[in-house]
């Protein structure tokens, strides 16, 4: 579900349209319940954050506050993310916050992959955090894992689920899941 685009269905390459339609029809009530729940949650949240608007961070809805100050400093203060920037306007703050969120994503995903991988007895050859167009994560044939930096916005248990899922691909590389 995307607040701007609505329901987005991603299917494997080669999937028959009839099978997709049948799946959606079988799960229609569940899908409609979730759409309703998400629309209620997203009601009033803007598509992009101007000053003082909310932003998800580790599953919590925080308010972004922009203040003049040393460039590149972001600090969580209670329910706010305070962004200090020398560049006036929202674009400078957006760059600072985006860079900070990516750094947080790299640190968190690396740490969680190492911890959860040790629990599973699995270790990737390398961990990447980079923009992925259609996925939260992926496992590469050489044993490296890639994760979307947007996972830092998800609740910790969702982030852990994605990490465990990708780690499992190190053991079972089947395309079926």
Describe the fold and architecture.
It is globular and about 55 Å long. Mean pLDDT is 83; it is low at 44-48. The chain has four helices and seven strands; from the N terminus they run H-H-E-E-E-E-H-E-E-E-H. With 177 residues, the chain is α/β, with parallel strands linked by helices. The chain has two domains: 1-43, no CATH class; 44-171, 2-Layer Sandwich (Zincin-like), CATH 3.30.2010. It has a four-stranded mixed β-sheet, with helices on one face. Strands 5-7-6 form a three-stranded mixed β-sheet, covered by helices on one side. Helix 3 packs across helix 4 (156-171). Helix content is 41%, strand content 20%.
- Approximate strand percentage: 15-25%
Major sheet description: 4 strands, mixed
Number of domains: 2
Q: How confident overall, as mean pLDDT?
A: 83
Q: Over the alpha carbons, how many angstroms does the gyration radius reach?
A: 19 Å
- What letter string, H or E per element, gives the SSE order? HHEEEEHEEEH
State the secondary-structure class.
Answer: alpha/beta
